[in-house]
Design goal:
Blueprint: E1 2-5, H1 9-12, E2 25-31, E3 37-41, H2 57-64, H3 70-75, E4 84-87, H4 94-101, E5 105-110, H5 113-126, H6 132-139, E6 141-145, H7 148-154, E7 163-166, H8 179-189, H9 195-207, E8 212-218, E9 232-235, E10 239-244
Parallel strand pairs: 4-5, 4-7, 5-6, 7-8
Antiparallel strand pairs: 1-2, 2-3, 8-10, 9-10
Helix pairs in contact: 7-9
This protein binds S-adenosylmethionine (SAM).
S-adenosylmethionine (SAM) binds next to α4, β5, α7 and α8.
Length: 246
């Protein structure tokens, strides 16, 4: 059954329209015969279906990096701490789940309902089993579907986070995610994101005064707010993590 994400949906529901309406995009959402939720972009030359599989060989390689990797060090896990991390831009959940596997307790926020549904399904399937991944997904990750800016501002979530992690959309990010995932995220969430919204998200995070804010960026991208320099950059080949302290 095709689903057409429409910028007028909020109007139809009597809600305030988002300031930056998503593009018109046709997607097909279906369950495979073995129960896996899949989303496929419609149209000519559309890539294949996307689903979330935290048990794939690719994801196992990402987990293997461990706490001494860039993400672990940026978030402060390398020192043996087990912080409460709010991942404000969960997407397909790779960073959130890597953090949970490394021992952090993660609250992951995702505002796109289709991306949120894929992630929810992937987490549920990943919980099956009795290994470290199942344990992390069962005990240390919570998904909240909604706009992190509004949820942060409401101040309804307790306890407050030690770390807020941000990985907003960015135009150059094609290399960081497999192509079809990148295309789906771009189509659903807007290729290149919105710099004003991202700056607003950073300010909403800073207002909560966590011990750390970590922003994932393509290696040569400008900072999330122009001129706002991090105290440290953890640089990899294609991405970097900008660390902000209060
Ligand atoms: C680049 S993706 C994140 C990828 C993710 N780090 C991963 O490992 O899969 C950015 C995601 O953030 C979400 N997003 C952007 N701004 C948001 C906000 N204010 N609140 C919640 N989600 C947001 C987008 O919908 C998109 O799914």
């Amino acid at each position: 059954m095709p689903r057409f994400a429409s910028p007028t949906l909020e109007d139809d529901l009597g809600l305030t329209p988002l300031p930056n309406p998503p593009p018109h995009v046709g997607v097909l959402i279906e369950r495979s015969p073995d129960g896996v939720l899949q989303v496929r972009l419609l149209g000519e030359n559309a890539p294949g279906a996307v689903w979330v599989n935290f048990r794939s060989a690719d994801f196992k390689r990402r987990i293997a990096e461990g706490k001494q990797g860039l993400l672990g060090r940026a978030v402060g896990l390398a020192k043996g701490e087990k912080p409460l991390v709010w991942d404000a831009t969960a997407g397909l959940g790779r960073d959130a789940v890597r953090l949970a596997v490394m021992g952090a307790t993660v609250v992951a926020f995702e505002r796109d309902p289709v991306v949120g549904a894929l992630l929810r399904d992937g987490i549920a399937r990943g919980r099956e089993g009795d290994d470290a991944l199942a344990e992390a997904l069962s005990n240390r990750i919570t998904l909240i579907e909604g706009d992190a800016r509004a949820l942060f501002a409401r101040g309804a979530l307790d306890p407050p986070p030690d770390v807020i992690f941000l990985d907003p959309m960015f135009p150059e990010r094609g290399t960081a995610l497999a192509k079809k995932e990148a295309q789906l995220l771009g189509a659903l969430c807007g290729v290149g994101g919105d710099a004003d919204e991202d700056a607003e998200l950073f300010r909403a995070a800073a207002a909560l005064a966590p011990k750390r804010i970590v922003v994932k960026r393509p290696r040569h991208a400008p900072t999330i707010i122009p001129g706002r320099e991090p105290v440290h950059r953890f640089e990899g080949k294609s991405v970097r993590y900008d660390l902000y302290l209060p």
